Amino acid sequence: MKEKLKIVILDANCANPGDLSWEEFEELGEVTVYPHTEDGQVVERAKDADIIIDNKVNITAQTIKALPKLKYIGLLSTGYNVVDIACAKKAGIPVCNVPAYSTMSVAQHAVMLMTALAAKLPEHAQAVEAGEWGDCKNFCLFKGEVTELWGKTLGIIGYGSIGRAVAKIALAMGMNVTACRRHTCAEDKGVKLIVDRDELIAQADVVTLHCDLNAGNANMVNGDFLSKVKKGAILINTARGGLVDEKAVAKALEDGVLSGYGADVLAEEPPTHGSPLIGAKNCIITPHVAWASREARARLLKAAKKNIDAFLAGDPTNIVY
Q1: Which of 140, 191, 277, 308 to pair with 61, CA 20 to 30 A apart?
Q2: Residue 52 in contact with residue 83, Cβ under 8 Å?
Q3: Catalytic: which of 23, 26, 27, 269?
Q4: 197 is a catalytic site residue
Q5: 0.85 exceeded by the pTM?
Q6: Is 240 among the catalytic positions?
Q7: In a domain, 142, yes or no
């Protein structure tokens, strides 16, 4: 009798805090679900696993070498920096990710941050809760200058699937859209492509980041970058916290160089040691949830299951090496 496939889900709560089902995975074999796993617990928990499902737990070379039964690593994410890819490849273990499952959710979130900052939404909502509107002599209460985005210029840095989705929404809102990109394509109708980043940020009323984080662009948004932005611009970051120098952005907010900063990411997540951006002036921070709509997470789980099906059929897809 064929031995039952053993699947270990290391950090289930990252993608499924309980509102979705693991039933499709259970059709494949014996599934052990851990809500959270510390890096040092991986070997013990996955010692008999044929398949590991992971989101943010580090799977090092040492860990891979200590799991001789391991045949496949499935990621509940697009990023794959948590796995020692070179070691997995050498061991013949496919590492498969899930691309583009949260495009519309992240685009929606980026636009939400942009419009909330333009409307001074937090200030106005908090004033109502504090009873200020009830005490106001006028029918309306102003807690800051509201900006109309129609006719304003949006500059997109990182023009992949999410950047394009944001562009389409912004165009529908009547914004002028520019993006850093060298080559045009049919999807770019209505978008002005600008090769030089400095030119883009000098023109944009709103700058939104949708690029990967790598050694070449870490702390890209620094003092020099901020010295070139249009005064009073709004900056949005739903990409990676490491793209920005948080102290420089906090100072730019305090000095009025930026009129607002909206981010779903921070350099340290969770921010155990705090961040200069938490509590900063005209700043909205959300806890890395832009990707996490129920619809996007359902797509993520379904795609991760399809990746396993493809691997078991001998034709793995979405291998990251």
Answers
A1: 308
A2: no
A3: 269
A4: no
A5: yes
A6: yes
A7: yes
Catalytic residue among 240, 246, 297, 299: 240
Structural domain of 24: 6-101+294-312
pLDDT in 10s for each residue of the chain, 321 residues: 467 899 999 999 999 999 999 999 999 999 999 999 999 999 999 999 999 999 999 999 999 999 999 999 999 999 999 999 999 999 999 999 999 999 999 999 999 999 999 999 999 999 999 999 999 999 999 999 999 999 999 999 999 999 999 999 999 999 999 999 866 665 678 999 998 999 999 999 999 999 999 889 999 999 999 999 999 999 999 999 999 999 999 999 999 999 999 999 999 999 999 999 999 999 999 999 999 999 999 999 999 999 999 999 999 999 999
Residue 57 lies in a domain: yes
> Is residue 317 in a domain?
no
**Based on the domain organization, do 32 and 150 belong to the same domain?**
no
What distance in Å separates the CA atoms of residue 294 and residue 263, rounded to the nearest whole number? 20
CATH number at residue 196: 3.40.50.720
249: enclosing H helix or E strand: helix 246-255
210 and 279 share one domain: yes
Q: Residue 269 catalytic?
A: yes
The catalytic position among 45, 197, 199, 288 is: 288
Q: Does a structural domain hold residue 319? A: no
Considering only CA atoms, give the Rg of the chain: 22
